[in-house]
Amino acid sequence: MTCGSEQEFVKTEIAERIATVTIDREAALNALNSDVLGELECTFYGLNMDENVDVIVLTGAGRSFVAGADIAEMSKLSPMEAKAFASKGQRVFDLIEKGPKPVIAAVNGFALGGGTEIAMSCDIRIASEKAKFGQPEVGLGVPPGFGGTQRLPRLVGRGAAKMLIYTGDIIGADEALRIGLVQKVVPPEELMDTAMELAKNIATKGQVSVRLAKELIDRGMDIDLRAGLELEADGFALCFSTEDQTEGMSAFLEKRKPDFKGE
Questions:
Q1: Is there a domain that residue 263 lies in?
Q2: Domains in the chain: how many in total?
Q3: Which of 203, 219, 238 is the last residue of a domain?
Q4: Would 233 be classed as within a structural domain?
Q5: What CATH number does residue 63 fall under?
Q6: In this predicted structure, what is the pLDDT of residue 263?
Q7: Residue-level pLDDT at 3
Q8: For the segment 113-137, what is each residue's pLDDT rounded down to a tens digit?
Q9: Which residue of the set 39, 41, 97, 117 is catalytic?
Q10: Domain range for residue 146?
Q11: Domain shared by 109 and 239, yes or no
Q12: 222 contacts 167 by C-beta, under 8 angstroms
């Protein structure tokens, strides 16, 4: 993986320990081609390692979040090239999902195919009232390839996922909220403020415990309840060796705001 200092399609701004990542390929409705995926990989690899970032907000430029994978590029792929393309997208989305820091998707418009898939790799999804979601790949003669067949049923249930994937139907933000695909729907003009307010709220908490909670939730989804509870107890105990735990409980008892250091 080679990361350049200047990126053409993925822009990052950092302020108040929050990174705002904007996919900016507006002429193509932010469709994901190999170049965009490569820039996303570099961006999230760097942010996951950046000690000055606690929370990440991901959005798209213009009227689209991500309109999908780039069909013009995909249409020319051989079977082996298609496998490599799908694997690259899955690797990038895994980097987002499994990274240590909370990622909030601010879905401003079209989130179709790869757009729904990248949103699902984020921890929390806030949608504009104008957002549209769907997995329309079967209309192109292929199933989802960037994780849709795996993440969607885990989020909305097997039946709802099968209906969306089999039909390729596009749903609005309210229906996405109803089935649990997104956590909140807001007017378009309030989207980024809402996402940033949430990010700032998370950033004020003890980051050791926030990151550990993310790991416990995600790892617990893949194991049985008893094993998950044991994992949780171990994580709970581990935090009693941190300065954040001492500060958090001391601040509560002293009736003041905690001053967490992330240690």
A1: no
A2: 2
A3: 203
A4: yes
A5: 3.90.226.10
A6: 80
A7: 64
A8: 999 999 999 999 999 999 999 999 9
A9: 117
A10: 10-203
A11: no
A12: no
**127 and 236 housed in the same domain:** no
Q: Within this chain, do residues 165 and 179 fall inside the same structural domain, yes or no?
A: yes
Please identify which of the residues 39, 41, 97, 137 carries the catalytic annotation.
137
Q: State the Cα–Cα distance between residues 31 and 113, nearest whole angstrom.
A: 10
| pLDDT score, position 4 | 57
Question: Per residue in 60-70, pLDDT tens?
Answer: 999 999 999 99
pLDDT in the model for residue 5: 61
Under-70 pLDDT residues of the chain: 1-5
Task: Determine contact, residues 59/65, Cβ cutoff 8 Å.
Answer: yes
**Is 258 inside any structural domain?**
no
CA distance 105 to 103: 7
Is 243 a catalytic site residue? no
Q: Are residues 129 and 17 in the same domain?
A: yes
In-domain check, residue 262: no
Task: Say whether 73 is catalytic.
Answer: no
Residue 225 one-letter amino acid: L
Sign of CA dihedral 145, 23, 9, 26: positive
